[in-house]
Amino acid sequence: MSLDISHLENEIIDQFLLDDSKRPWIIGFSGGKDSTMLLQIVWRSLLRIDPFLRQTRRIYIVCNDTMVENPRIVKFINSTLNKIQKAAVDYELPITVHQTMPQLEDSFWVKLIGLGYPAPNKFYRWCTERLKINPTTKFIKDKISESGEVIILLGTRSAESSNRAASIKKHAVKGKRLRKHQLQNAFVFAPIKDVSTNELWQYLNQVSPPWGGTNKELITLYRNANAGDCPLVIDDTTPSCGNSRFGCWTCTVVNKDRSMEGLIDNGEEWMYPLMEIRNFLVLTRDNPEKYRQKERRNKTVSEHLWGPYTFETRAKILRRILTAQKEIQNAEGVELITHQELVLIQYYWYRDCFFKLRVSDIYNSIYNTSIDMSKQQEKFKQESDLLKTSCKNEEKDVELIQDLLALQKTKTLMIKKRGLQSDIESRLEQYLEVEKKK
Ligand code: SF4
């Protein structure tokens, strides 16, 4: 029997026409089952609206790439996003697709290998905010500054978990479809919140995506990975990531990455080196006496609190990543760490201790190349000496200025300086905040 979801489409159409302030819609899309159903229903609803009226509102589809997404899922999502953008043009829908990413200085590898952050666990989960929340929040804030207010459409469902159900209820504005978002001037619309998991799968099985193809690949991915999905995390109603869903392949917050194991068991053996790296990260995190420094970044030493990874550990992790990358790059075309990340890691290594090994030495030994980073090393050293001499009466300013320089460098590496000023401002604000508390 086919599933009747016409009431959901009617609600979406009603909301679209009711709100004549034409606040843009931002659809959070993770490529998973919930956001796929949401987008299909929104798309079909839009087609039922008069073509002139539907051009009056901008609709942004936003998908976040943490830079350590499971590469198998990345391939699938990228191809889906391309299809969506092309079909939106063909159907003349006011939809554009946007991908957000963490700032380079916040990337998983820059933090872990560059600065020595230990692999995250549930008590020290430094990654979610940096890799997921901040990039999408920035996108939403930009749209709020452009338009005053926005409506965010999410595929959250009460049936997903009791926590989520309670949270959805807490934020609901009685008698209204929209609920307030934590960000000022943003509202959330969750049209499929009452759809059960069975209904969702029934729908995806029966209704093909309007942007082309079928949902077969999506369904197979879920089946092979025994997984839930890792939704776009943009407020506290979205469950935390991890927990047997398509999250980052590096995720050490979950005890076991069942989705990656599931994919390997079902024929994606090339992912085996990734699983080994992930398991090595768990080992380094759980054995601080072997892999971490005694001294913390603030130069204190305490019996129970360990400092960052030693440089030897960071070099070991980097070596493993590059080795795995070389192994799978030819067959699968997967890049595990970017060139920009490598350069910034090197910058932090110079800055923190002039570690005898260079990133380029490790890279050369694996790829058999002869990249020479000694000139940059000399430049960084001169810069650092100059800074220390100039700040000899205000030593605490050295670190702040080095941070600001690192921000500037990352923007240069990314070849765009957009956002540099606001990043510098927020770093200065953080600094002043800390100073005030002293
Ligand atoms: S999936 Fe894991 S590693 Fe990725 S952001 Fe979430 S908790 Fe962190």
UniProtKB/TrEMBL annotation:
SUPFAM superfamilies: Adenine nucleotide alpha hydrolases-like (SSF52402). It comes from the Bacteria. InterPro entries: PAPS_reduct_dom (IPR002500), Rossmann-like_a/b/a_fold (IPR014729), Sulfate_adenylyltrnsfr_sub2 (IPR050128), SulphurTrfase_DndC (IPR017598). PANTHER family: PHOSPHOADENOSINE PHOSPHOSULFATE REDUCTASE (PTHR43196:SF2), SULFATE ADENYLYLTRANSFERASE SUBUNIT 2 (PTHR43196). Residues 27-252 form the Phosphoadenosine phosphosulphate reductase domain. The lineage of its organism: Bacteria, Pseudomonadati, Bacteroidota, Flavobacteriia, Flavobacteriales. This is DNA sulfur modification protein DndC. One of its GO terms (molecular function) is catalytic activity.
